[in-house]
Design a protein that fits this description.
single chain; 376 residues; 68% helix; globular
Length: 376
């Protein structure tokens, strides 16, 4: 029987907050909850961690610790078990400039300097006149770059496009494809959604045709078949033909990415634009396209990255980009060493990874900046 006169204690002051156990917060808490939460997860973490350490250490040992950094091909013959970076340093100018004439390589250096400065300037939020610089990089700069690299005016000697190559050619093909494919893809996407039968059918046929043909076939047709239809004596530059093929091919894929963004918008957005009395092009420019493009930033950048990597296919039509130059240098009998091919392809892979990863990270930054609550 309970005592009816039991005394109850009521606390009148709050107890001061205690710090959470160290095993549940911070780095230790994350490791415990995500890597060692169960015996199976613990075993899997240890196994994969050991495999990762083994692979990373092997790669670092081959790439850095046991690599040959100087001494020419003879040093690589003595130590074929490590990367032959002296091969890269010896042929570095060729990998960057291709067959561009040495006295005129300052033109390539100037264009690369303006390019990377402009990209950094337009991507830096606090940079003055940022929009003007971005507009310059999108429209006048490609034309100016072509004139400077090709020459023929202002006293600049002509350097034929057949002498372009290496990383310079990779940038030329990829940047022209990116700059042309985005606005053309937007127009194609709008045309495919048009209610006018002729415009709709034309854009639909264009998109499906280019998406249904492999890029290798497009380049082969542009390089070898298209000249057969030209009048006698007319010689259209091979690089220009490849650039047109790249741009049209990428535009078809870009159109489908943009169309996905247009379809993701609520019908009310279109009705709101109509209620304001805006014309079709004003409603697209001010209301519809900004939202649609923001929603498909990952898809747009993914198309850009794919286009950047696909530039290596110009090798099949005789244009030597970065990969083509490395492949040609590997065939040199003076560098017939076991470690040279792997080193060359590793150099190409690292270069492409740096640029592709940079585009991916910047797209993530833009996506986070433009996020207005639609992200889940």
């Amino acid at each position: 029987m309970s005592n009816p006169r039991s005394v109850f204690f009521v606390r009148k002051e709050f107890i001061s907050a205690r710090q959470a156990p160290a095993s549940t917060i911070g780095v230790l808490g994350w490791i415990r909850n995500n890597l060692f939460s169960t015996p199976f997860n613990s075993l899997l973490t240890v196994a994969l961690g050991g495999l990762g350490v083994w692979l990373i250490w092997g790669a670092l040992d081959w790439l850095i610790f046991n690599a040959v950094w100087a001494g020419g091909n003879e040093a690589c013959k003595v130590n074929p078990e490590g990367a032959c970076w002296t091969f890269i340093s010896t042929r570095f100018d060729q990998f960057v400039y291709g067959f561009y004439e040495k006295p005129e390589r300052w033109r390539v250096d100037l264009i690369l300097l303006v390019l990377f400065t402009g990209i950094f300037w337009s991507g830096w939020e606090r940079a003055p006149a940022r929009k003007w610089v971005g507009g310059f990089m999108l429209i006048p700069f490609p034309l100016i770059a072509w004139v400077v690299l090709y020459g023929g005016i202002f006293g600049l000697p002509v350097v034929e496009t057949s002498q372009w190559g290496g990383f310079t050619l990779t940038l030329v093909v990829s940047l022209i494809g990116i700059i042309v494919s985005l606005p053309l893809g937007i127009l194609l996407a709008l045309g495919r959604r048009s209610k006018m039968p002729i415009i709709h059918s034309t854009c639909l046929f264009f998109i499906e045709f280019w998406r249904g043909v492999p890029l290798i076939t497009v380049l082969f047709m542009a390089a070898y078949v298209l000249p057969l239809f030209f009048p006698a004596g007319l010689n259209f530059d091979q690089l220009l033909r490849a650039l047109i093929g790249f741009a049209l091919f990428a535009a078809a894929y870009m159109a489908e990415v943009v169309r996905g963004g247009l379809q993701s918008l609520n019908k009310g957005q279109y009705e709101a634009a109509d209620s304001l009395g805006l014309s079709y092009w004003k409603s697209m420019r001010l209301i519809i396209l900004p939202q649609a493009l923001k929603a498909v930033i990952p898809g747009i950048v993914n198309t850009f990255i794919g286009l950047f990597k696909d530039t290596t296919l110009v090798l099949i039509i005789g244009l030597l980009d970065l990969l083509g130059m490395v492949h040609a240098a590997i065939a040199d009998p003076n560098w017939s060493i076991r470690s040279v091919p792997t080193t060359g392809y590793a150099f190409v892979a690292i270069t492409f990874f740096i640029f592709c990863y940079g585009m991916s990270r910047y797209s993530r930054f833009v996506e986070e900046k433009l996020n207005t609550g639609h992200k889940r």
